[in-house]
Amino acid sequence: MKRDNTDSNSDIVKQLIRLSIPTMVEEILVTVLQYVDVAMVGHLGEDATAAVSTTTTIGWLIGGVIHAFGIAILALMSRSIGEKNGERVEKLSRQAVLLVVACAVIFGTASLILSPFIPVWMGADERIRADASRYFFIISLPMLFRAAELILASSIRATLDTRSPMIVGLFSGLLNVPLDYLFIYVFGWGVKGAAYATAICYVVGGSLMFLIFARKEEFNFSFRTVTPDGKLLSEIGKIAVPAMATHVTSCLGYVVFAGLVSGMGTTIFAAHSIAVNAETVVYIPGYGISSATSAMIGVSLGEKNERKFRTVSRASVFMTLGIMCINGLLLYLFAFPFMSLFSNSGPVVELGGQMLRMVALSEPFFGLMICMQGIFYGMGRTKNVFYIETFSMWCVRVFFTFLVVRVWNLGLREVWFCMIADNITKAVLLTISMIIEMRGRMNSAETAASG
C-alpha cells in the first residue's frame, strides 16, 4: 500500500468517532424496538414473553442472512469510493436493489409458509405455540421493507454517511413505542398487537431507507438502470456467502442452544430470553463502532492508504474495549433493576439478574470479538470469521450446553458459563488471526518497498 500523509492520525481517529456515534445511536435505537416489545409483552405474563421470544432466534437467522449481502455491498462499495470509481459504485447500488427484491421473495415466502411449524421445532410449550406462530407470521409479512432497511443501509454507510440510517432508526424506534402501547393495551391485542407494531415499523423504516438511498448522488439511481451484472453479483457472492454461512451456522447454533434451554421450563426460558435481550444494550455500541470501522477500512483499502488502515484498526479496538468495560460495569451494578424493567415475575427477575452479573465480566471479550469482525468484514475477508464462528459455536457453546442440560442435568448458571466460554474463544481466535493478517501485510509492504 502507498503511504498517504494527507490526514494525520488524530484526524483519522476523529473521523472514526464522528462516523461511529451515529451508528452506535442507530444500533441502540433498533434494540429499543426489540426492548419495547419484550418489556410491554413481559408485563402480560411469562407465557406472552415466551411466545414472543420463541421465534427470536429464527428472526436473527433471517436478518443475518440478508445482512450478509449488506456486508458484501459495503466492502466492495466503500473500496470503490476510496478508488474514486463512480461508475462501479452506481453499478453496485443497482445490484443492491435487486438483492433486496430477491431476499424479500425468498425469505418472505419461506417465513410465511413455515410460521406454523417453527414454534414446534423450537420446543415451545403447546399452550404458547399459536401466539408464537401468529407473531412470527405478522412480522414476516413486510419482508421487502426489512430487506431494504438492512441492505440499503449498508450501501448508504459505504459512502461514509452514517447519520441517515441513524435518523431512520430513530424514527422507527420512537414510532414503535406508541404503536405497542396502542395495540397491546388500548386495543387489547396482546402478543398480536406487538407483532403489528413491529411490522408497521419495518414498513416505515424500509420505505424511508429507500428514499434516502434513491436520493444519493453517488448512486445516481433509476429503476430503468436496474439490471443484473453477473460479474458484480459474483464478487458480492464471494464475500456474502461466507458471511451468510457465518450467520447461518451461528443462528442455527442459537436455535439449538435456545431449544436446549426452552426444555428446562417456562420460567427458566423466560429468564434466559429476557436476560439475553437485556444484555444486548451493553454490546450494541460495539456493533455501531464495528459498522463505521468496516466502512473506513474499505475506503482506506481503496485509497491504498496503509497508515489509515492501521490507525482505524487500532482506534476501533481501543474505543470498543473502553466502552465495553464501562458498560460491563454498569450491567453488573444494575442487573436486577434492569431485569425488572422487562418482567414483573420475581423468579424471572432474580434468575435473570444472576445471569447478567455473570456475563457482565466477559463483556470486554465480546467487544473485542465484534471489533475484529468489523475489520475483517471491511476487508472483505469473511471466511476467517466463518471458520472461527463455526468452531466456537458448535464445539464450545452447543456441545457443552448439551452436556450441561441433557447429561449432567445442571442449571441455567452452567449454561451461561458455556455461552461466556464461546464469546471468549471467538475473541481470542479472531485476535490471533488479525495479528497474523497484520504481520503479513507488514511483510508485503516491506517487500514492495525494498523492491
Mean pLDDT, nearest integer? Answer: 89
Shape: globular
Count of individual domains: 1
Summed up, the helix count is 17
| H-E string | HHHHHHHHHHHHHHHHH
List segments where confidence is low: pLDDT < 50 over at least 5 consecutive residues: 1-5
Strand content: under 5%
Helix fraction, binned, reads: over 70%
What does the largest sheet look like? none
Structural class: mainly alpha
Strand segment tally: 0
State the end-to-end CA separation. 13 Å
Radius of gyration: 22 Å
Description:
With 451 residues, this protein is mostly helical. It has one domain. It has 17 helices and no strands. It is globular. The two termini are 13 Å apart.
How would you summarize the topology of this molecule?
Elements: H1 9-42, H2 46-54, H3 56-82, H4 86-114, H5 118-121, H6 129-140, H7 143-158, H8 163-186, H9 191-214, H10 230-262, H11 266-303, H12 306-333, H13 335-340, H14 346-360, H15 363-379, H16 382-407, H17 412-450
Summarize this entry quickly.
Helices cover 84% and strands 0% of the residues. It is mainly α and 451 residues long. The protein has one domain.
Short key terms for the protein model shown above:
mainly alpha
